[in-house]
Amino acid sequence: MARKPIIVGNWKMNKNNAETKAFFEKVDAVAASENATYGIGCPFTDLRTAVDNAKNLIVAAENCHWIDSGAYTGEVSVPMLEEIGLKYCIIGHSERRQMFGDTDETVNKKAKRLIEAGITPILCIGETEAQYDAGETEKVIRDQLTGSIADLCPKCVGNMVIAYEPIWAIGTGKSATKDDAQKCCAIVRDQVRVMYGDEAAENVRVQYGGSVKPGNIVEYMACPDIDGALIGGASLKEDSFIEIIEKTK
Ligand SMILES: O=C[C@H](O)COP(=O)(O)O
């Protein structure tokens, strides 16, 4: 089965409601495509506005908690995301792992709860610059996946999106070469194969993330194991995200 590409912008902690509305009014119509899925991950406060203005773009939260309710100040639960009608949620982004204590174990709990709710996790992994320099990239990818996608069903994993994002390439303008990105996304797929078999490995969509922009998206998308991209900076401006869509639809 051919995998449908999925390209998602991750706004991180950017944009208010008026800016969200303006972005969707300009970009949503362009994102109509039979061949690929396009979407935006945005702050919790923008989600309702995004969903209300999205006909074609999919909308993702940038995080969630795995427990449904309780004394967890500042957290947002999966049922709260369900109530807004979300179908995707980014989990385990390296900024959350590095600054807010997310671990493979908590990412795994989030993935399980999202899958139970029918929300597709966009699960992020990737090595630091020091790990890259030490030649540990493959081990880091396999170890992070071993923890983050543990104890799921093969079909559930096949339906997931896994974003490989080398941390040294995020927001730095220093993107991975297409050959390196392809090699690492193939390792992601192979680790899924090791853990869940051929069908899950063939179905799982693997994104590359890290300084993706209109000028390099096409070469990444031409790689056999890259099924999409998770895009930070270049998703913030309407024109650059439109250019990315136009070049890949
Ligand atoms: O989630 C997106 C990544 O952190 C990539 O960000 P970037 O495109 O600004 O490098």
Automatic annotation (TrEMBL):
Q: In which pathway does it act?
A: Carbohydrate biosynthesis; gluconeogenesis; Carbohydrate degradation; glycolysis; D-glyceraldehyde 3-phosphate from glycerone phosphate: step 1/1
Catalytic class of the enzyme: isomerase
Where is the catalytic site? 93 (electrophile), 165 (proton acceptor)
Where in the cell?
Cytoplasm
Q: Spell out the InterPro entries in the cross-references.
A: Aldolase_TIM, TIM_sf, TrioseP_Isoase_bac/euk, Triosephosphate_isomerase, Triosephosphate_isomerase_AS
Residues the entry annotates as binding substrate:
10-12, 171, 211, 232-233
Which EC numbers does the record give?
A: 5.3.1.1
Q: Among the entry's GO cellular component annotations, what is one? A: cytosol
Annotated transmembrane regions: none
Q: Which GO terms describe its molecular function?
A: triose-phosphate isomerase activity
Q: Name one GO biological process term.
A: glycolytic process
Q: Which reaction does it catalyse?
A: D-glyceraldehyde 3-phosphate = dihydroxyacetone phosphate
Q: Which UniProt keywords apply?
A: Cytoplasm, Gluconeogenesis, Glycolysis, Isomerase
Database matches in NCBIfam families: tim
**Subunit comment for this entry?**
Homodimer.
Per the entry, what this protein does is:
Involved in the gluconeogenesis. Catalyzes stereospecifically the conversion of dihydroxyacetone phosphate (DHAP) to D-glyceraldehyde-3-phosphate (G3P).
The family annotation for this protein states: Belongs to the triosephosphate isomerase family.
**Protein name from the UniProt record:** Triosephosphate isomerase
Q: Which organism is it from?
A: Floccifex porci
- Gene designation: tpiA
